[in-house]
Amino acid sequence: MSSVKPNYITGKIKYFFNELFTFVKFSLNAFRHVPHNIRYPLEFFRAMYEIGVKTLPIILLTGFFTGMILGLELSDTFEAIIAGTSQFIGAALSVGLLKELGPVLTALIVVSRVCSSVTAKLGTMRVTEQIDALQTFAVDPVDFLVTPRVMAGIVSVPVLSAMSISIAFLGGWLMVTVGFEVDNSLFWEMAQFPLKLYFVWESVTKSAVIGGVVLLISTYMGFHTRGGAEGVGKATIRSVVTSSLMVIVLDYLIGTAYILAY
After folding, report:
1. Where are the beta strands (DSSP E) in the chain?
2. Least enclosed by CB within 10 Å: which of 28, 30, 44, 186?
3. CB 254: neighbour CB atoms within 10 A?
4. pTM greater than 0.70 (yes/no)
5. How many CA atoms lie within 13 A of 28 on its CB side?
6. 180-221 pLDDT, tens per residue?
7. In angstroms, how far is CA 21 from the centroid of its own chain?
8. Cβ-count burial of 10 within 10 angstroms (0-12 exposed, 13-18 middle, 19+ buried)?
9. Is the pLDDT score of 1 beyond 60?
């Protein structure tokens, strides 16, 4: 028993680093094709439509109700502690939504709606040998299938995040000003008071980096799918779980970096 466990752990460690090395090579190969995709942007715009436009309705709906829930719960909690403190909710909403909830919530919705679909689609193409067929016709599958989606993720997720933050703040504003009768001008004054310019850059950086990474993960999982329909299902689950975890990890790392820098 003592010899089995170390061998098992060693095998898992080797597998992890082999997988990480393969993923890094895959990512570098994807970014190598960016100049070509800029010159011929048709696939990029198709990916933007799939990732950005089709995801927008659920982003707006989720963002609006998230803002209303935050406005309701925070106002109720503040008022329960000290009467009259709901007037400060604007500050909490603006900072919380801009720095954390906006980018993270948007990225998780993109993971659930887009990344699962991308992995399943590319995985199906892999197990049915459609990707091999592209290579037969001298089409680089990474250039054609991966790079446009990664570029679209980097561009579209910050835009979706900005829309999510705006509509969530609108929902919070309605709840606080109408539900708790906070003065409108006071709400907006408090909302602007704690904001700093680097909060915006932090939000954009988080959204762009996370958008690119989760699309890299989903395309990587799809490209390396094995085992037919069952393999496609397993790859999709791995893609969603890994991407969701990376959203939280990258949010923490980038947020920490900005705090240390400023």
Report:
1. none
2. 28
3. 19
4. yes
5. 6
6. 878 888 888 888 888 888 999 999 999 999 999 999 999 999
7. 23
8. exposed
9. no
Distances (CA, A) of 34 to 28, 109, 193, 207: 10, 25, 40, 19
Query: What three-state secondary structure class fits 36?
Result: helix
User: Over pLDDT 70: what percentage of the chain?
Assistant: 97
pLDDT in tens, 243-261: 999 999 999 999 999 999 8
Q: Distance between CA atoms of 230 and 245, rounded to whole angstroms?
A: 23
Measured distance CA(203)–CA(196) in Å, rounded: 12
**AA letter at 79:** E
User: In which residue are the tokens 């850059």 written?
Assistant: 201
Q: Above 90 in pLDDT, residue 6?
A: no
Which DSSP category does 85 fall into? Answer: G
